[in-house]
Write a structure and sequence with these properties.
This protein has about 400 residues and is α+β, with helices and mostly antiparallel strands. Helices cover about 35% and strands about 15% of the residues.
């Protein structure tokens, strides 16, 4: 595919944004004049609001501007598509980045869509079983063939992150789940359910649920979340999507995509996120929200705090705000460092670095924010027991958290 039209849909009919064109292995983008007239800035830091053809110099997004790269699945979603292409006789290296966007079509995160939508090679899923999906996910991660590959693609082929996940419709009144391939019937909400990866402990879902409650007690905004139990007793962490309000959509932009940061080899500091938050929201309280998140990740030992795990949202009037926190859980790292630095420190950041960061951005009452988070994290055993985290895991995590708080 050499040409893709980008559209955006909020609450009404989709608006045509512009066109992506692939020429000589380079991707170019051009806004449509009618969209420019609306003065909606899709990516304020790196995508210029001009009629001329643009190309980014960033290659780690496959030659895309970060705002479009945010639509692409990575990790799990990319693995599923590549496995399906191989089975159908297509080499993944022959699939262009525009092909991948067209496979995403209208089912990606946020409000952007890509047209013409490419055939996703699968049939719509009408029923599904959490246990069967868990087993099929394990087979795919192990490199084995799965008879449920089509179902996995339909349910989670557009999702990001390394862990297997599915996007579903959930009715909290009837406790029913259904496949989510577009708009949902009345009463259903857009949710995401996570499965464990090969490197995850068996109690990862309960631990993440405990961290969710601990984050709320720390004053962080998060979407409603719960544990889903399968027929066999398996437990999976689920959360309501923050890029959907009913069937309306919000434009989503990760900090990585917004600032063109290679989140796998990042040099970013939480200060960069604060600066971006202030520039988007035009309010100092935005910096305070980032400080609270940084404090939680420091005290709660979440070292998987890279720039793709922080996002911003834009509504149809062009207003921006920091998205609710997500992917918060106990996390080590292979190198022993946080993914992002705190006032330049990534190995052992603490209160001093958080206060330095707050001073740089003139945040009011930073000690109060930091202490509120520290006190909530100090109640880890309380939240863990409520989520039925095994005692051994509670004790292991508590031993690591205590020196940090």
């Amino acid at each position: 595919m050499e040409r893709v039209t980008v559209k955006i849909r909020f609450s009404g009919a989709p608006l045509e944004v512009g066109e992506l064109v692939l020429r000589d292995q380079k991707v170019y983008f051009k806004f449509f004049p009618d969209f420019l007239a609306r003065d909606l800035m899709l990516s304020p830091l790196h995508l210029n609001q001009i009629i001329e053809i643009q190309r980014t110099g960033t290659e780690f997004f496959d030659g895309l501007f970060g705002v479009f790269a945010d639509s692409l699945p990575d990790g799990w979603g990319r693995l599923l598509l590549d496995r399906k292409l191989t089975e159908s006789g297509t080499r993944s290296e022959d699939v262009t980045v525009l092909d991948r966007l067209a496979f995403v079509g209208e089912n990606g995160p946020g409000a952007l869509s890509y047209h013409p939508v490419k055939d996703n090679l699968t049939e719509e899923v009408t029923t599904f079983d959490l246990d069967l999906i868990a087993e099929a996910s394990k087979q795919v991660l192990a490199g084995k063939s799965s008879g449920m590959l089509d179902e996995l693609i339909q349910l989670g082929g557009s999702s990001g992150g390394a862990r297997p996940k599915i996007v579903v419709g959930y009715d909290p009144l009837t406790d029913r789940l259904q496949s989510n391939t577009g708009d949902l019937p009345e009463g259903y909400e857009h949710w995401l359910i996570k499965y464990s990866a090969t490197f995850d402990p068996t109690d990862i879902a309960r631990t993440e649920m405990a961290y969710h409650e601990m984050a709320l007690a720390s004053g962080l905004e998060m979407m409603p979340s719960r544990l889903f139990e399968s027929k066999s007793g398996g437990v999976f962490f689920g959360t309501k999507r923050f890029d959907r309000i009913g069937n309306d959509r919000l434009h989503l932009h990760s900090a990585a995509g917004l600032m063109h940061d290679n989140f796998r080899l990042t040099n970013m500091d939480y200060g960069h996120v604060m600066d971006a938050a202030f520039r988007l929201e035009k309010d100092r309280t935005a910096c305070a929200k980032v400080l609270r998140l940084a404090a939680f990740n420091v005290f709660a030992h979440n070292r998987d705090d890279h720039s793709k795990n922080i996002s911003f949202l834009m509504g149809e009037t062009g207003n921006w705000w920091l998205a609710p926190a997500y992917d918060l859980t106990f996390s080590q790292s292979s190198h022993g460092y946080h993914s992002m630095t705190v006032a330049g420190e990534s190995k052992s950041p603490g209160r001093a670095q958080l206060l330095d960061l707050a001073k740089t951005f003139s945040i009011k009452k930073p000690a109060q924010i930091i202490d509120e988070v520290r006190d909530a994290v100090g109640r880890w055993p309380e939240f863990a027991k409520k989520a039925n985290v095994p005692t051994a895991t509670i004790n292991t995590i508590e031993r690591i958290l205590n020196p940090q708080i």
